Amino acid sequence: MKVALIGDVHANLPALETVLAHAYEAGVQEIWHVGDFVGYGAFPDEVVRRLRREDARSIVGNYDLKVLKFKKKQDKWRRSKRPEKYLAFKWAYQNLSKSSRKYLRSLPREMRLEVAGKRILLTHGSPASNEEHLTPDTPQERFQGLAHLADADVIICGHSHVPFARQVGDVWFINTGSVGRPDDGDPRAAYAVLQIEPEQFQVRHYRLEYDVASAVDAIRQHELPEAFAQMILQGHNLDVVLPLE
């Protein structure tokens, strides 16, 4: 089986469209998505609907869960969060259809699959927490502990927005990187293709140029903060683009 591994689209439809086109040209048979459909980008509902049309195997991300809580948390968050982050949650919530909100609420936080005898875990952050950032710099000891906790042969994650593949004993950790909002200084869309056969296991990461101008123009047309556009242009998160004084 050949599978496209995607995550952290963050409402960037132009990036998602480019990734899907590239993946199908590469001959993938399924799309596995590790969450964070929405956040900061201008196309929250369009991204949810697009991945539903593709019948992607999806889990919910930590950002998705926070957006779904916005209505109950808005008063608290208005006081406790920086204005740009509060506005990102608000805008994503208000621009999701009722159908898309219902769909996101229906998604699991993790998913277990078995392909060609391999036990596979899809999780957003790590097997321990959907908010844990796994990167190439995560200590070996932590990976070993998570491998034991996961009880899987392949752990596919996102959240850190930094793509990597790492083998720990007999266990593989694969981070998809971010389709729509990379944080590693490279603004190109990131995803991976996984090929699993009984005697073969192969993963390849891709970085793709896409129509960044369309993603940025949509943010500006909706009069969202310029920092949201700069995140896409620079390939960095909000705290880097707009550091606290």
The biggest beta sheet reads: 5 strands, mixed
User: How confident overall, as mean pLDDT?
Assistant: 97
Q: List segments where confidence is low: pLDDT < 50 over at least 5 consecutive residues.
A: none
Strand order of the largest sheet: 3-2-1-9-10
Estimate the global geometry from the Cα principal axes.
Answer: globular
SSE ordering: EHEHEHHHHEEHEEEEEHHH
Radius of gyration: 17 Å
Q: Beta-sheet strand percentage?
A: 15-25%
Intertermini distance:
49 Å
State the helicity in percent bands: 25-40%
Question: How is this structure best described in words?
Answer:
The chain is an alpha/beta fold. 39% of the residues lie in helices and 22% in strands. The strands form two sheets. The protein has a five-stranded mixed β-sheet. A five-stranded mixed β-sheet has the order 4-5-6-8-7, with helices on one face. The chain is globular and about 50 Å long. The model has no long low-confidence stretch (mean pLDDT 97).
